[in-house]
Amino acid sequence: MSVDPAILRPAIFVAILLGCLLVTHRARSRFARADGGGSRTITRRFSADLEAVWSTIKRFTTTTNHREIGLLYIAFGTIAALWGGIDGMMIRTELLVPTASVWDETTYNELFTAHGITMLFFFVTPVFFGIGNYVLPLLIGADDMAFPRINAIAFWLLPPSLLLARGGLLAEMTAGAMGFLLGENPVVEFFGALSEPALGWTLYVPLSVQTANPQIDLLLLGLHLSGIATTMAAINFVATIVYERAPDVTWANLDIFSWTILTTSALVIFAFPILGSAIVMLLLDRNLGTTFYAVEGGGPLLWQHLFWFFGHPEVYIIFLPAAGLMSLILPKFCGRALFGYRFIVYSTLAIGVLSFGVWVHHMFITGIDPRIRAGFMATTLTVAIPSAIKVFNWITTIWDGNVRLTAPMILCVASIATFVVAGVTGIFLAAIPINIRYHGTYYVVGHFHLVVMGIIPFMMVAASYYWYPLITGRLFDRRLARFQAALLVVGSTITFGTLVTIGLFEVPRRYASYPAAYAPLQQVATIGAYLVGISVLLWLYNMLWSYWAGPPVEDADVWNLKETDQFSREWQWFEQRLERRYDVEPTEPETIRPAATADPAEGSPAFTSQIRPLLRDVGQNAAVGALAGLAATALMSAVLGVGGAIGVFDLAAFAELSGLVGLPERADVGYALFVVAGATVWPLLFLTIAQYLPGRTQIGKGLSFATIVTAGFLIAFYTDQTGLALVGYVAFAILSHWTYGVGLGAALEYAGVSTES
């Protein structure tokens, strides 16, 4: 019996929200030892009486304070991201199988439409504008945004616009519930007439004109309203940066994040009115019989021109703030100033100008004049130059720095790598012959998502960790943050790297079904997407738990920025706030290492001086791990030998292992490889991930590790056993791995090797 997607989507969403409430309740009701440093954990006090709740609601619904509005933006964007992310997970679930058997094709198209619109319009831009609202006035020394009331209005237009755009799902749920309780009646018929559009997020005509679904009109009105809200916010940002800067903040020393918000806001002011005009004409065509997009009028291509004239600058509207966060956060954990500040500013402005001259590369297959296509191919290739300038400057900033692999830094480094891959695939798509061949394939999906997932959410999460102490006054669990960051990187790389590979095989996109030969690759991509989903839930858990039960911040220099003279303006504001709260004088280091210097004696030590101690420790641990792994493998071999003696394990399976790596298919050669892996690969993997495994002792962690890797062994060494032989095979495989885990953990514990960070 299949589950109705209209029920499943809100059910998952509600389950996540209930989980958030449970986390906050648990965090408030007990002490939680967060690993962010600091003193004894102290939980926040929360008053649940009606007067206090009403006061909080009134405060946040009437506020014009830039920090509180920034938090509202971020909360709204997070909720939209969860909603759109559930749609994305359901899309990937459908693609686990080649046929449209999990959901039907109509539901798949609805999910495809809703996912794109929700993520682009209601997640990315609101979150970046929320971050900008909170920190930008602090960075430039302003008291507030230039127009505080307009700032509040711009936000409060967003919730109704989201409800209008996604009202089809809510209407389906309402009609189903009322029909079940009250039977058929006019009210049920009214809500039943609305359903989620299945047009694709680009809303191409003539399908969007001819489809008789009233929800499409509401969707268009919601998008138009969100465009008005975004434009109002952008005008406010421009006015704030131009007119509200402190006297000592000039264009020459304006921080790079403010530069990118300024450029982004200019793009919004020019691009969103175009989308609004196109939407109005589409509404008129649908409801009043005009012919703006009819063949006898402007033609269907007019919509594509107007949409992509907005749509490609929109890519940079959501990319540039991420690049600004990268340029701001990366130097903090490299211990040196940003390399090439001026060139990054110039490249940001160049991207803003060039982004309006590349939209036709989305339309190469529509029959555009070849001479026009060639011109737009050239501008598309040109826009890659300022993007490459940013990448080279980021890498150079890292090159001679004192790198600290915190969670934000992990995400920064990973963003550079994924953005390089995304950029290279984009260069290929800019070439007309390649674009024509791959335009309708998963290659485009992989390229686009490597940008929008590979750097944008990465930088959002990095910013949330970087400024979390400043916003909440609490420290988060740093160990969990590093694990979550790594999991997000791995999941994103697996998912969208696989989609690029699928695209190279010319598998068409936008279809709920596909040839069965590509099912394994689609399944790998789906597993990667699930890893992304798990990492998002871990991030949400860390944010909520730490807010209620994380250690309070007592020293504003959380990231040791004073050592490199990078204790920037927003942290100085935070220090003054703590000074008033605790009545303590701010501490200054005795010496300040310059943020940029070529002298290793003063700072920016040579890369090799940081690597040598790390290599020494790794070498020692690897040697001890090899001995421990060898002993554990011997114990495991004894158990497998017993299994072979009683006939539930075929020792000849080792021959396939040797054949897999190109060696002669002999059991003795395969067993030798097995011993080598047991003494090298598995101990090193255990030492790498042991700190994240459950268990208070090395032996307990070894059991957890062995249980996890058993699944791979069961698949690799299965030799068609059935019945009791199969049961015995599974039992001996698990027992042998537990023996290995106990032996490995006991040996490492005896040797005194620590797996704690």
Plain-language structure description:
With 757 residues, the chain is mainly alpha-helical. The longest helix is centred in the last third of the chain and has 39 residues. About 2% of the residues have low confidence. It contains 27 helices and no strands. Helix content is 70%, strand content 0%. The two termini are 47 Å apart.
Output the keywords:
about 750 residues; mainly alpha; 27 helices; about 70% helix
Radius of gyration: 28 Å
Q: Tell the overall outline.
A: globular
Main pleated-sheet profile = none
- What is the distance, rounded to the nearest whole angstrom, between the alpha carbons of the first and last residues? 47 Å
Unreliable runs: 32-41, 603-608
What structural class is derived from the secondary structure elements?
Answer: mainly alpha
Helicity, as a percent range: over 70%
In percent, how much strand structure appears in the residues?
under 5%
Oligomer: single chain
Blueprint (SSEs and pairs):
Layout: H1 5-29, H2 50-62, H3 66-94, H4 105-140, H5 148-156, H6 158-165, H7 167-182, H8 186-192, H9 207-210, H10 214-243, H11 256-288, H12 300-329, H13 341-354, H14 370-399, H15 407-430, H16 432-438, H17 442-452, H18 456-472, H19 478-504, H20 519-549, H21 569-582, H22 607-645, H23 653-660, H24 667-679, H25 681-689, H26 698-716, H27 723-751
